[in-house]
Design goal:
Length: about 325
């Protein structure tokens, strides 16, 4: 059953009525409700288009967090062949909020790394809701260094509210681990492309998205802090998250204007969760295009390209 967001309540009522009619027809074969159900379906489709035509930043935040949105493991399963997971940071533990390993993308050997939030209560707890601890970032560093050694392109899939802020994580050097993961992104001499598939929260996202090319799904978000966190700091009131979302410029459209990202990936009407296969296919095309754009560049050129991207960041928006 589809989980509806609060702004989708009118849509839920219409789709619910259509389903009720069909249920009555199944219970009583003599009933003919095809025309009525079709009319409700058409009304629902139009309403869905209208709702998603011009989403506010806060509503985009809600869509980006939708529990049925495809997650990292869904993309890996659909887009990569011969995926071999690699575990552990060779120092403390294996962080299940970060998954990654060797794979083939369209026949090409690559290293894929991403945040995984989990899809049900048990897996969300195991994955810590996608909030990585230091060992997760150190695992990512290990995989990036391995990719650099063997000349494998790195593909990262970003979907995290932010790095885990717990006491144990701080004791084990959370800030240092994030900084070193960001440094590893900047220094590896292989193509590095990143896709924000849901939430891109704080340094926890930057540690994976300091890439040559960065793409975002249309209704994903990427920000230094969550709207709720920003509202709590600035206004001492988390309920002002809507105002914070506007001010933070968290949407793909905002960030493309500023030059923070390079590509916006169009989602199916109603968001990626309404048609996961189509969304995953769109991400596949974007990854192909980003890798092709980097083909032929030498290691030093890739590092220079990545460095220049971040030096230029924001200049496009300021010039405008």
């Amino acid at each position: 059953m589809t989980q509806y967001l609060d702004f989708e309540k009118p849509l839920a009522e219409i789709e619910g009525k259509a389903e009720e009619l069909r249920a009555l027809a199944r219970a009583n074969e003599e009933m003919d409700v095809a025309d009525e159900a079709a009319a409700l379906d058409a009304k629902a489709a139009q309403l869905l288009t209208d709702l998603y035509k011009d989403l506010t930043p806060w509503r985009k935040c809600q869509v980006a967090r939708h529990p049925e949105r495809p997650h990292c493991q869904d993309y890996i399963k659909a887009l990569f062949d011969e995926y071999t997971p690699l575990a552990g940071d060779r120092n403390f533990a294996d962080d299940h909020a970060v998954m990654g390993g060797l794979a083939r993308f369209e026949g090409r050997p690559v290293m894929v790394i991403g945040h995984e939030k989990g899809s049900d209560t048990k897996s969300r707890i195991e994955r810590n809701f996608g909030m990585a601890r230091p060992e997760g970032y150190r695992k990512a560093i290990r995989l990036m260094e391995m990719a650099g050694k063997f000349g494998l392109p790195v593909i990262t899939l970003v979907d995290t509210p932010g790095a885990y802020p717990g006491k144990g994580a701080e004791e084990r050097g959370q800030s240092e681990a994030i900084a070193r993961a960001t440094e590893a992104c900047l220094q590896i001499g292989v193509p590095l492309v990143s896709v924000v598939i849901g939430e891109g929260g704080s340094g926890g996202a930057v540690a994976f998205a300091t890439a040559n090319r960065v793409a975002m799904l249309e209704h994903s978000i990427y920000s230094v802090i969550s709207p709720e966190g920003c509202a709590s700091i600035l206004w001492k009131d988390a309920e002002k998250m809507r105002e914070a979302a506007e001010a933070l410029r968290i949407t793909a459209q905002n960030l493309n204007e500023l030059g923070v990202i390079d590509t916006i990936i169009t989602e199916p009407t109603g968001g990626a969760h309404r048609d996961s296969p189509a969304a995953i296919q769109a991400v596949k095309v974007a990854i192909q295009e980003m890798l092709e754009d980097l083909d032929g560049l030498k290691p030093a050129e890739l590092v220079k390209d990545r460095r220049q991207k971040f030096l230029d960041m924001g200049a496009k928006g300021l010039a405008a």
